[in-house]
Amino acid sequence: MKKGASIYEVIDFAKSIGCEHIEFVPFYTPFVLEKECRIDEAYIDSVRNKCLDLGLDISTYSVNADLINSDPEVRKSEI
Question: Which residue has the higher pLDDT, 12 or 37?
Fold first, then answer.
């Protein structure tokens, strides 16, 4: 796998080596448009559809949010 590969190339590679599922971690995946403070639903849909087309299950999605913070306002800001 080459450095700087697109997410679509990674999906193709995973399928080509026999993976049955894939997990996306948001550190380097632009699922969230931070400047606009919104989720990029079109991008997420295209990634999901690529996986569906290849029969590659998405096993989970990791989030960076602090969802167990004891301060309700902090929790709310993380969602």
Answer: 12
